[in-house]
Write a structure and sequence with these properties.
single chain, 451 residues, 2 domains, six-stranded antiparallel beta sheet, five-stranded mixed beta sheet, 17 strands, 30% helix, serine-type carboxypeptidase activity, hydrolase, Beta-lactam/transpept-like, Peptidase_S13
Length: 451
């Protein structure tokens, strides 16, 4: 009987081993195949991309799998896609609301200084909190200087862009976005000038003089000329900043001629207070969606103020981010010199930009993150391109444009539901930007439809 039991047990073991040897092991389903073949052919055959420096990185957000790397390890000038790095730093450093002022109360006197907040009376993202706080203070107001370590313009900025709305001067206490607004409501008539303090410095151009611009400003002074036009127009021109002008503007707009300059020295045991303004997402949305250079630069200065340094410095924030190791896992090193991307000294790679997009996706809930970006066919710099299919947006991103450079970084949702991070960078092209943009749209639409 025992022999029979042993024989049966041996037979059962043999069957079990045979089954184990013939049954294949469980293998995880393969990741989706990279679209390198057809997409690479499209990129290489493109007559638009052939003559300039172009690169593309395409990565699945859920898995981190690289689907395509085409010149993605090479360096490019990122232009305004550099603002994504500024956004990342701000999300790691700033609180939920913008720190608008630092102030001290001594008796009935309010001493206050700037933090770099750009929203005070800004034409597009105005914050009333600091304005009302100062306007309604019942006692004397004393404006104290904020130590500031940066020049008005960033390293590598184009000097002859000084009169254009996209390159205002940076500063510790911005007001009116550091720009003058002109409204020519009746053709041929003098424009309305805001703020009104600048009206005495605005004159008509000599008879017969022409210009491609409505307004010209002297390089070193706040002297403006306006040019007659047969149509109504609106223009925005940066002004030269100075402590004296800031004091004049505050007295005028607050209707407080008693605002006086003073010194900021903390007494033993005294601690400055912070007045908070807009939710930070209001600042970020305007910065990223419409690619506002001034807001981006000031965001780095806000980060400097938040770090507790007495002197505002964008460079200090950049060094702080590096010391924290927050960029250590990027595949390549970066040249980072400003917050806006106006400088051509900034350098990065397409795969760096995608790695940054993946870090942003991990840091911020997806709905919030996508809401900060321009949306194809929706708002911002992408409102007229990448139009939704079935009324659903499928591309969100940040554009970047300098002369002969156009880049786009962001997220793309395919018809199969995958969310992809991409960076499409183009440098040194002589073709019109519109031509390059249309080719990028054609190729990214194919990615959307085929994956």
């Amino acid at each position: 009987m025992r022999r029979s039991i042993l024989l049966l047990a041996g037979l059962a073991l043999s069957v079990s081993l045979a089954t184990a040897q013939t049954t294949p092991p469980t293998i995880p389903p393969p990741l989706p195949a990279a679209p390198a073949d057809w997409l690479l052919r499209e990129l290489e055959a493109s007559p638009v991309l052939r003559q300039h420096h172009a690169g593309l990185q395409l990565t699945a957000v859920a898995t981190g799998q690289s689907l395509l790397s085409w010149h993605a390890e090479q360096y490019f000038t990122p232009a305004s896609t550099q603002k994504l790095l500024t956004l990342y730093a701000a999300l790691r450093i700033l609180p939920d609301s913008v720190p608008s002022l630092r102030y001290l109360v001594r008796g009935d006197t309010l001493l206050f200084r700037g933090t770099g907040d750009p929203t005070l009376l800004h034409g597009d993202v105005p914050s009333a909190r600091a304005y009302q706080f100062l306007r309604q203070w019942p006692g004397p107001l004393v404006l104290c200087p904020t130590p500031y370590a940066e020049p008005a313009y960033g390293p590598g900025w184009t000097w002859d862009d000084y009169p254009y709305y996209f390159q205002p001067e940076r500063g510790a206490f911005p007001i009116y976005g550091h720009t003058v607004r002109f409204y020519a409501r009746q053709p041929g008539r003098a424009p309305l000038v805001l703020p009104r303090v600048f009206r005495p410095w605005v004159t008509p151009a000599p008879p017969g003089a022409t210009s491609p611009d409505h307004i010209r400003r002297d390089l070193e002074a706040n002297r403006f000329q306006w040019f007659a036009s047969p149509k109504a127009w609106v223009d925005e021109t940066p002004f030269r900043t100075s402590p004296e002008l800031l004091l004049t503007l505050l007295r005028d707009t607050l209707h407080r001629p008693d605002v006086q300059p003073g010194r900021w020295r903390l007494r033993p045991g005294e601690q400055a207070r912070v007045l908070h303004g807009l939710p930070v997402d209001s600042l970020y949305r305007r910065t990223i969606r419409v690619s506002d250079n001034f807001l981006a630069e000031q965001t780095l200065l806000l980060c400097s103020a938040q770090l507790g340094h007495d002197t505002l410095s964008a460079g200090r924030v950049i060094r702080y981010v590096r010391r924290q190791g927050w960029l250590r896992d990027l595949p390549d090193s970066t040249a980072w010199v400003d917050g806006s991307g106006l400088s051509r000294l900034n350098l990065t790679t397409p795969r760096n930009q995608v790695a940054l997009l993946l870090k942003l996706h991990q840091l911020v809930p997806e709905p919030r993150l996508l809401s900060l970006l321009a949306a194809g066919g929706g708002q911002g710099t992408l409102r007229r391109v990448y139009r939704p299919t079935d009324r659903k947006a499928w591309l969100w991103g940040k554009t970047g444009t300098l002369s002969n450079n156009h880049t786009l970084c962001g997220y793309l949702r395919t018809t199969s539901g995958q969310l992809l991070a991409f960076s499409f960078m183009n440098n040194n092209h002589l073709a019109e930007t519109t031509v390059v943009r249309r080719e990028m749209e054609r190729l990214l639409t194919l990615v959307h439809e085929r994956l």
